[in-house]
Each structure stands twice: as C-alpha cells, then as structure tokens.
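Query structure, 438 tokens:
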C-alpha cells in the first residue's frame, strides 16, 4: 500500500476491526463524500468496489513515465511498458495460484466467459485442428450450469448450445436458493462436456460446493468453468487447489480499475484452444492465405492491450495481499452475519438465501413486504446508503425464489460495523415511511 495511514503487515492485528478499517478507509477518498446530506455508506461492492488512491496513482504514474505499446517496440519505453505489463500478469497469476502463461487479460469477466464459449464454438466448427477437438460440441453433447448463475455465465452457454446443437441443462435450487446437490449426479452425465458454475452467488453471497461439482465433472471427463467474480475479491482463492479448468474474474470488483478482468485456464488447454479475437500481436506468421498463432496468453490478446489497467489491477492485488485475504474474508463474514441477523429481526423483512450454517460472504439480499425494491433503494439513498436493487443479472434465480427483484447490501474491507448499523436503522424505517404494514 502507498498510504502513510498503514502499518506494515508484521504489526497488523490478527483480525480486522473497526479501528484498523478506519485507517484503511483513509485510502478511499470517495468514502468521505456526503450523499443527499448524509455521510456515504457504500454497500454496493458486489457490483463495483471502490478504488484506493494507490491504484489510480499507479495508472497515472504509468502514463506519465512509461506509456507505450507492449510486445512491439524495441525502444526503451516499449521495453519498460512490456515489463510492467507482464509483471502485472505475474502478480495476478501468483495471487490466484496460477502460472503466468495461464492468465489472459480481458475487459471483464463477461468477456472472459464469452472467450471460452466462442473458442469452443470455433473448435466445434473445425478450427484449431486435432488439438482443439476436445472442445468441440454438437448434438448429443451436454452443457451443465446452475440456477444460481449471473447472466454472464448463462447466456453465453445458451448461445453456444444454439450454435452447436448441444443441450443446455441446469442444476436447480430449492425454495431457499440452495443448490440441489442431490440432483447434480443425475444431471451431470457421460454426455456432459462442460460444467459451468459460480463460486459465490452474486445475489445470495452463498459459497458453492466447488469440490463436489469438480469431482462430478471429472468423473465424466467434463471441463469445469468457474465464475470467480464474487470469490476472488473476498476469499483466498487458489485455482490449483480448486482444481478447475477455467476461472473468470473482474478487476473492478477487487479494488482495481474498470475495463480490466481476466481468464485463468490450464496452460495445456489454452494452448490447444482456437483463438477468439484475431489480428495483430497474437500471431507467429501470416501469409495472404493463412496465419499461425502464438501460444497462450498472447493468442487470446489481439490488438492494443489494457496496459495501465493491468498495472492498476496489480497494484490493487498488492493492496489486498498486504491487508490479507484471510483477514478480509473473516471481517466480511462478521459484517455479513451482523447484517443478516439484524435484517431478519426487522418486521416485514425477508432475508433471502439458505440458513442453517451455509457459508456466505458479506452479502445480504432481502425484500420488504409491500415495498418495491426500487423504492427501498431510493429511500436508503436518501439516507446516504448505497445498495443494489433489481434482479442483479440473475432473473432465473429470482424466479425460483418467487420474486421479481430484491435489494442487496454487499460489504468489503473498508466497511465498518457502523455502516451496517446505519443500513439496519434505515431499513427499519422503510415500511413506516411508505405507510405499509400497519
């Protein structure tokens, strides 16, 4: 971290607390804002996290000192920019337990997931040669997702099934939103070629049983694709321990800039996959008739890259590492439990998601009887409390829960217990304000 407000890792307490978090908050100037006359209480990090000063200073420093194209020029600026770009890749790979050549830069997780599906589609069309045949799909093949998925990990698979003739299946949730894992073994069959699922539900904050789903996929030889958007920012994640084949993540949810995300893939798989986008910087040779492609990651990074954003994301990763992912996860669990129990005690409030010890991150989704979530959001905003309202790009899950939309409060390392109390106080006034439930 680049702020004088911090102590070193060696002197940090074992667990985060409000005192330490107050020091961290000094790195996030936006948290000093007032909204509608009230102090900003930012509880929408599940959508986009706030960015510490060191991250945007890193981007500015790049532009002021190193701005140049990477992997192309032989002059000093180009060499320095390339070193910064590839060091960022190395830092991010280390953060998730991957090798450097196993991380591909994308604009966001949505692009990362589309990269996989379009590459598999290209393999299905016969591109990529013999090495790519393992990714080809056709009639009789199956793709399995879950009813928890964000649209970004659902619609690309729907489209791939339509293009290839494969069948799309899903593991349903129960009435509380928990995956029906007892059905998974019959849904994942020898015809299954891909199992794509979220690590943490973006709506409910519940943690999926990754080992069980990976084991089922492995038993039938299926590839696994993990949506890590809500896990990489909030939990210690090691892709090798998780044993997944691919994982998508997004920088703007983990203190990084917008416009940068990534895809992890096993090196041997990425090298065998046909490219998604084609053009400059991802080829070895080109004639007027054909082209030969570089190995991963370059074969998936056509054109001018997100250089300053990658540097900014690497700076965010360094910040998260210094605070400590175990400490962040424990603090958010504490905040999440405070939210969930507090909301459940307010008359007319229904907290969504399974109970009974389900592992969750610091996210609390809820509905208020007789008040539309958009009205809830506007009322909370009038108190300075920023939350997310709507279907959160997960319409099938909301439909399974018997609702159209919900309100979601989501925490991060810069939130305090007083933030949670401000949310609870505001929520407790919603029904009275709208004169319902009397």
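Result returned for the query:
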């Amino acid at each position: 971290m680049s702020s004088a407000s911090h102590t070193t890792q060696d002197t940090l307490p074992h667990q985060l607390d409000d005192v330490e978090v107050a020091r961290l908050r000094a790195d996030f100037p936006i948290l000093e804002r007032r909204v509608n006359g009230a102090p900003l209480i930012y509880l929408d990090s599940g959508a986009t996290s706030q960015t510490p000063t060191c991250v945007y200073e890193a981007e500015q420093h790049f532009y002021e000192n190193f701005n140049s194209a990477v992997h192309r020029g032989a002059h000093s600026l180009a060499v320095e920019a390339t070193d910064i770009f590839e060091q960022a890749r190395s830092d991010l790979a280390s953060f998730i337990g991957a090798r450097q050549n196993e991380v591909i830069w994308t604009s966001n997780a949505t692009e990362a997931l589309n990269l996989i599906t379009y590459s598999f589609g290209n393999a299905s069309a016969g591109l990529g040669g013999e090495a790519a045949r393992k990714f080809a799909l056709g009639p009789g093949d199956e793709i399995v997702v879950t009813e928890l998925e964000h649209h970004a990990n659902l619609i690309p698979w729907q489209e791939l099934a339509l293009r290839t003739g494969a069948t799309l299946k899903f593991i349903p949730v129960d009435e509380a939103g928990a995956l029906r894992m007892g059905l998974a073994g019959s849904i994942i069959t020898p015809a299954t070629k891909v199992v794509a699922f979220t690590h943490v539900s973006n709506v409910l904050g519940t943690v999926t049983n990754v080992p069980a789903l990976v084991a089922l996929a492995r038993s039938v030889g299926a590839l696994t694709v993990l949506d890590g958007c809500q896990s990489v920012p909030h939990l210690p994640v090691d892709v090798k321990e998780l044993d997944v084949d691919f994982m998508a993540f997004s920088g703007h949810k983990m203190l990084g800039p917008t416009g940068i995300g990534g895809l992890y893939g096993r090196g041997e798989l990425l090298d065998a996959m046909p490219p998604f986008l084609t053009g400059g910087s991802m080829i070895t040779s080109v004639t007027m008739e054909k082209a030969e492609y570089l190995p991963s990651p370059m074969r998936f990074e056509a054109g001018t890259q997100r250089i300053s954003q990658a540097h900014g994301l690497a700076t965010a990763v360094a910040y998260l590492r210094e605070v400590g992912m175990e400490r962040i996860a424990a603090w958010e669990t504490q905040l999440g439990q405070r939210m969930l129990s507090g909301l459940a005690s307010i008359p007319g409030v229904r907290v969504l998601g399974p109970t009974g010890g389900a592992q969750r991150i610091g996210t609390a989704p809820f509905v208020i009887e007789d008040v539309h979530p958009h009205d809830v959001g506007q009322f909370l905003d009038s108190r300075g409390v920023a939350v997310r309202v709507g279907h959160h790009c997960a319409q099938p899950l909301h439909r399974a829960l018997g609702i159209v939309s919900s309100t979601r409060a989501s925490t991060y390392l810069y939130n305090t217990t007083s933030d949670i109390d401000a949310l609870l106080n505001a929520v407790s006034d919603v029904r009275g304000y709208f004169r319902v439930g009397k």
